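Below is a filled-in request sheet from our internal design queue. Each sheet records the structural input a requester submitted and the sequence that came back. We keep these sheets so that new team members can see what a complete request looks like end to end.

REQUESTER: design group, bay 2
PRIORITY: normal
MODE: inverse folding
CHAIN LENGTH: 323
BACKBONE (tokenized):
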């Protein structure tokens, strides 16, 4: 029963924007909007900015309707026929997406290369198409880990080496940042707990790993409160006291933010004394210079993003008494 529910939730999760759906179904964007006004079909969720998002199930419904129209049926009649089949439970559910095999790493690497090159060429429409194609084949978790993460690294390296200028770097990283933020607000039904707080250390402006962590936590059903870049510790402490999260995750990449982060027990003495909420940390500085782990109070989440997500998932399940 749990497996069936998980598969249904994944099929109904809003993931694809209207442009991606238009390319996946062959139905023009303008037509999709007209159908929505005229027939209240297809169904869509909305982002905070008001943009439509469609699920895998909705894509399957659209493809069925388009096939009937291509056979000569009128649009209204095709949509009514769809509703009739669904009412009688005779409309086939889309197959649950199979997890990507590691045998597909070569294909994921190709998608990553295409995504990076499209962004370096300032072609965000091509980037939209590439992500849409990949989402139709792979779980979102794999896109984050094997497309977006290496793309962010490549773009940062290209800027540091002088191969691209700051404007190109900003365009590319902001495009990926916005995508991650959009994915962070979608996901399976969240566990009934307060959101996990995610924040960068004071003076820490590199938020890529924290954004990806937020997306991966949401995919596991954990609600998140994303505070983002360079959060002052006094402000963080006020927020934590008001929101009572089960855990706080703090990220530092270099020594200066890490030194500032050492002071968190001064501002959150209750957490330092009782362990509630859990104060967790990670980032490049703690991986490259392990001695920093002995200096930093709290729970080190691991050397990789995957380790961090798994460790935090275990801690949250224990705190919430979940299996």
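RETURNED SEQUENCE:
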């Amino acid at each position: 029963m749990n497996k069936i529910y998980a598969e249904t939730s994944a099929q109904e999760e809003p993931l694809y924007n209207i442009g991606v759906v238009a390319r996946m179904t062959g139905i023009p964007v303008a037509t999709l909007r007209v159908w929505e006004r005229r027939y209240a079909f297809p169904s869509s969720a909305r982002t905070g900015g008001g943009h439509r998002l469609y699920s895998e199930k909705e894509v399957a419904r659209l493809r069925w309707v388009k096939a009937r129209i291509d056979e000569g049926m009128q649009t209204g009649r095709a949509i009514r026929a769809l509703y009739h089949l669904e009412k009688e439970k005779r409309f086939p559910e889309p197959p649950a997406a199979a997890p990507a095999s590691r045998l597909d790493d070569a294909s994921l690497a190709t998608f990553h290369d295409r995504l990076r090159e499209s962004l370096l060429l300032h072609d965000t429409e091509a980037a939209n198409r590439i992500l849409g194609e990949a989402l139709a084949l792979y779980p979102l978790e794999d896109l984050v880990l094997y497309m977006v993460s290496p793309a962010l690294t490549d773009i940062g390296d290209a800027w540091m080496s002088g191969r691209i200028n700051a404007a190109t770097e900003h365009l590319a990283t902001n495009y990926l940042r916005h995508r991650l933020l959009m994915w962070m607000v979608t996901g399976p039904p969240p566990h009934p707990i307060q959101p996990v707080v995610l924040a960068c250390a004071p003076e820490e402006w590199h938020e890529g790993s924290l954004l990806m962590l937020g997306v991966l936590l949401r995919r596991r059903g954990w609600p998140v409160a994303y505070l983002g870049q360079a959060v002052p510790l006094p402000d963080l402490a006020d927020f934590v006291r008001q929101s009572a999260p089960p855990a706080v995750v703090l990220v530092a990449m270099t020594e200066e933010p890490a030194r500032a982060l050492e002071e968190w027990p001064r501002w959150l003495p209750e957490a330092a004394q009782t362990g509630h909420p859990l104060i967790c940390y990670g980032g490049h500085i703690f991986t490259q210079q392990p001695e920093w782990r002995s200096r930093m109070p709290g729970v080190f989440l691991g050397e990789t993003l995957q380790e961090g997500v798994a460790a935090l998932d275990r801690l949250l399940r224990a705190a919430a008494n979940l299996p």
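SHEET NOTES:
- The first strand starts at residue 16 and ends at 17.
- Confidence is low (pLDDT under 50) at residues 1-9, 94-104.
FILED BY: M.R.
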